[in-house]
Amino acid sequence: MVSVPSAYVNNDGYRIAICVPVMDQCSTLFTRSLANLMHKCGQDKKPVTLHMSYGSNVISQRDSLAREALATPADFLMWFDSDMHFPSDTIDRLLNRKAKLVGVPYATRVRPIRSTAFKSTMDYDARLNKSVDGGLEKVAALGFGCVLVHREVFETMEAKEYKSKFDVVNAVVMDKKEPPWFGVKYDDESKSVLGEDIYFFEKASDAGFQPYADFELAKNVAHVGSKVYTLEDIEE
User: What is the number of domains present in the chain?
Assistant: First the structure.
């Protein structure tokens, strides 16, 4: 898959913090994708910052990346995993969706090959493998490998967490803790552990934000494993 000149330009002045958790190394295809994307941002004079966290605890990495990015003036946090392959205009195309929480559904890297777009956060097997018209679809959750999130989503989730700790009578914050944007949860019904991505989307939904999946952009995004997987590999 080769990056091509972008037909999409979005210079509305949005500031973007690109967030990438990395376990050890970045794939070659990811490195090329990121380089092309950063080059395009420079050409378009798009204000971006790049944040990377190295480690083996993706929950902690995502949390620290979010805090680092939110400490900047960024309007949006653009999340990429280091095993993704994407076009140079990914940010523009997601911004043009005019949504505060939108991402790209991509294929899993192990069989059964399925989409990472979820129709329910409570049913790990409820996947949306394709769009009716190939465009934008409402979903319950997405894999976090290619997701654009407005900072308001994080801030609203944070305020909601703090509010639950607030003693209105005494007007003091009781047992104030940092908000758990990312985490894991065991689902008794499906007998499965829901990952940090589904955990995030569930909390974002509780805070009033609807996630969207961009199936048009998904045609140009791949999940890099022992082979390059696309939605065409999904086994229904």
Answer: 1
